[in-house]
């Protein structure tokens, strides 16, 4: 076993924790953000390591990936990236903060319904959550594209919907859209909630809680595992500081992307051959 010595590393010991949702069994938290966010102004562990490159990269095995070549829930690589895990060039996006891993977010495509955001909208790329959070007006518009979706009264900001009602969802960063698997849109398992107790159960009676939720006003978008499960991600701290996304490459699951930004209308998403056919039809009319 090779032991790596890391000098002058600060550690914090907690006797009580509040305001953090730490799963049972987790014994600690390893901060990967910038030094400026540390209450003790401590240098992050990964930046104290003698790495070849000032970057780290992650693979998170999401729902239904079943990648038997990697018997882990995820892989964190410090100082390098595993080129066998992704295909194509990385889509690099400049960070918009010197300390947090935040980039500009372009919006959401829900079955060709475009939810646009203001220019220079910030999104925090957060490996510490499975959720995706955004402003209430955008999230309400998002769930209007789910048949039968309703906000959960006991959990404001969270929505439930029939588990069979999951549209096609892409998140857009820069000039690329990344598809989310239906399983990544679901936070909790199906729960039987019949509309009518006297009727036989049908698929609409099984409700799921969505992994996309409404944040408080003024908060940035938060992009967690529900998105990161579908891409390989590189956090590059060199100059320029940036985050890169690339489609996953595994035997059981390959990411689906649209290599164009969000269109101004849904017709822009028609396959090229259909656009060509439509043009021919217009010409023939004249």
UniProtKB/TrEMBL annotation:
Gene3D superfamilies: Acid Proteases. It is an enzyme of class 3 (hydrolase). Its EC number is 3.4.23.5. Keywords: Hydrolase. InterPro entries: Aspartic_peptidase_A1, Pepsin-like_dom, PEPTIDASE_A1, Peptidase_aspartic_dom_sf. CDD domains: pepsin_like. Transmembrane segments: none annotated. It comes from the Eukaryota. GO terms for biological process: proteolysis. Residues 1-246 form the Peptidase A1 domain. GO terms for molecular function: aspartic-type endopeptidase activity. Belongs to the peptidase A1 family. This is Cathepsin D. It comes from Malassezia caprae. The lineage of its organism: Eukaryota, Fungi, Dikarya, Basidiomycota, Ustilaginomycotina.
């Amino acid at each position: 076993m090779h032991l790596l010595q890391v000098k002058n590393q600060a550690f914090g010991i907690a006797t009580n924790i509040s305001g953090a949702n730490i799963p049972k069994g987790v014994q600690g938290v390893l901060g990967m953000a910038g030094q400026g966010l540390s209450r003790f102004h401590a240098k992050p562990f990964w930046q104290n390591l003698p790495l070849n490159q000032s970057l780290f990269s992650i693979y998170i095995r999401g729902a239904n990936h079943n990648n038997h070549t990697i018997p882990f829930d995820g892989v964190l690589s410090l100082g390098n990236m595993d080129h066998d895990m992704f295909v194509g060039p990385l889509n690099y996006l400049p960070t918009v903060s010197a300390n947090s891993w935040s980039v500009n977010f372009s919006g959401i495509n829900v079955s060709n319904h475009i939810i646009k955001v203001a220019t220079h909208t910030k999104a925090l790329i957060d490996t510490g959550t499975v959720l995706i959070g955004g402003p209430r007006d955008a999230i309400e518009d998002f769930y209007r594209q789910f048949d039968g979706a309703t906000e959960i009264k006991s959990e404001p900001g969270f929505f439930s919907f029939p588990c069979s009602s999951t549209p096609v969802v892409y998140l857009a960063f820069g000039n690329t859209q990344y598809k989310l698997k239906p399983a990544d849109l679901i936070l909790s398992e199906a729960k039987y909630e019949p509309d009518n107790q006297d009727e036989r159960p049908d698929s609409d009676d099984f409700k799921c809680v969505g992994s996309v939720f409404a944040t408080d006003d003024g908060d940035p978008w938060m992009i967690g595992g529900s998105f990161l499960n579908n891409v390989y991600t590189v956090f590059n701290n060199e100059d320029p500081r940036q985050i890169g996304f690339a489609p996953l490459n595994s035997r059981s699951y390959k990411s689906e992307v649209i290599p164009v930004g969000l269109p101004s209308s849904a017709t822009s998403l028609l396959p090229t051959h259909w656009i060509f056919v439509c043009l021919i039809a217009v010409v023939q009319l004249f």
